[in-house]
Design goal:
Length: 328
C-alpha cells in the first residue's frame, strides 16, 4: 500500500459496518464520513482503484459457495451506491490496477486468475491462489503456496494484447506449516522479507534474486499459530497474527531485530485461502481489523515509539479494510 508523501493529499479508511454496509471513515479518528448499503452477503474483500474513483467489494453468500463482486463510485472519499459487477463461483480475492480488476478465484474446479475490464469478457488462467500480492511496474507479483500447498513460489501476472499471462518465478522452498500461513513483503524489485511460523515462533527470511536466506527467529513464541498479514511502515515490518501485531525494526548487521508487541484485544479473521485485508497502512499508522473493531497503531519513523491510538474510535468498524487517497 503506497504511503502519502505530499501535503496536498488526504486519505480515508474503507471497511464495513456492523450490518455489512460499506463505509468510508476518517483514518485519524475512525468517524464514518459516508456509507453505502451492503449487498446482503458476508464481506470478504475490498480493493480501491489506484486513482481513488471506484471501490470494489466481494461479498460471499451464506454457504460460502460463491458470491458477488460489486463496484461503488468514490468521489473525494465519499462512497456512492454499489452496483453488480460479476458473479463468482467459490471464494475470491480482488486487486484493483490501472488495467482492470484482478480477480483470484478458488472453487471446486481449482484456482484461476482473471482481469475484469470494461467491455471485455474476462478469460481465466489456471494458477495457484495468492498468499501475498503486490505491484511491480506492469506486473502483478504473487507469493503462492503452490498447486498442492507444498511450495512457496513467486509468480508474475501480466496483461498483454492477447490476454493474461502468468509465469512462474523463484522457488522459495516448502512452507513451515501445514496448512501454510507464510506471507511476503517486497522491499525492492528483487528483494523482500518472507514471514513464516516455525516451532511456534515467528521466523523472518530475507529474499533476493538467488532465493531465501536462513531464518531469523523473533523470539515471540511459543504458541504462535499463524501469520495473517505483513506490511512495511516507517522503516519497520508489521507482522499480524491472530490477536497480536509485531512491529519489527531491522537490527544491526551482527544483532537481532528490535521487536515491539502490540496486543489487539480482539481476534483477527483467519485468511486461509487468500491474502488478508485486515492490515493496511497509511502515513505513520496501521489499521488492524478484529472481531472487536478496528484498531489504529502509530509507528514513528526510525526507531520512534509504537503505540495504540486510544483516540481512534473503531469499535463500530469491521474488515476487510482498504485505503483511498483523495485530493485535498
Amino acid at each position: 500500500m503506497k504511503q502519502i508523501s505530499s501535503a496536498d493529499e488526504v486519505w480515508y479508511g474503507v471497511g464495513f459496518g456492523l450490518n455489512g454496509e460499506v463505509v468510508v471513515f476518517d483514518g485519524k479518528t475512525g468517524a464514518v464520513t459516508s456509507s453505502a448499503e451492503g449487498g446482503g452477503g458476508t464481506p470478504r474483500d475490498v480493493s480501491v482503484d489506484p486513482d481513488g474513483t471506484r471501490l470494489w467489494v466481494f461479498e460471499e453468500n451464506e454457504d460460502a459457495s460463491g458470491g458477488e463482486i460489486r463496484v461503488c463510485p468514490l468521489d473525494a472519499g465519499a462512497v456512492g451506491p454499489c452496483e453488480h459487477a460479476a458473479w463468482v463461483d467459490g471464494g475470491a480475492a480482488l486487486f484493483a490496477t490501472d488495467e482492470g480488476l484482478w480477480v483470484f478465484e478458488h472453487a471446486t474446479y481449482g484456482s484461476r486468475w482473471k482481469v475484469l475490464q470494461e467491455g471485455t469478457i474476462a478469460k481465466g488462467v489456471y494458477a495457484p491462489r495468492p498468499a501475498s500480492v503486490w505491484r511491480e511496474g506492469d506486473r502483478v507479483e504473487v507469493l503462492s503456496y503452490g498447486v498442492s500447498d507444498d511450495r512457496l513460489t513467486r509468480l508474475s501476472g501480466t496483461m498483454t494484447a492477447n490476454g493474461l499471462v502468468v509465469t512462474t518465478g523463484l522457488d522459495l522452498g516448502a512452507p513451515a506449516l501445514v496448512p501454510p500461513t507464510a506471507r511476503f513483503v517486497p522491499l525492492s524489485a528483487e528483494s523482500g522479507l518472507l514471514w513464516d511460523v516455525v516451532g511456534g515462533d515467528v521466523a523472518m527470511r530475507k529474499v533476493d534474486a538467488a532465493g531465501a536466506a536462513a531464518a531469523v527467529m523473533l523470539g515471540v513464541g511459543p504458541g504462535i499459530e499463524r501469520i495473517e498479514a505483513a506490511e512495511v511502515l516507517s522503516g519497520a515490518a508489521l507482522v499480524l497474527s491472530t490477536n497480536t501485531l509485531w512491529v519489527v525494526e531491522p537490527g544491526e548487521e551482527n544483532g537481532g531485530p528490535n521487536v515491539t508487541t502490540v496486543a489487539l484485544g480482539g481476534e483477527v479473521r483467519r485468511a486461509g485461502t487468500f491474502f488478508s485485508r485486515d492490515l493496511v497502512t497509511a502515513e505513520d499508522r496501521a489499521l488492524v481489523a478484529t472481531d472487536q473493531g478496528v484498531r489504529a497503531i502509530v509507528v514513528e519513523k526510525d526507531g520512534g515509539s509504537v503505540f495504540l491510538d486510544d483516540q481512534f474510535d473503531g469499535g463500530p468498524l469491521r474488515g476487510p479494510l482498504g485505503v483511498v487517497h483523495a485530493a485535498n
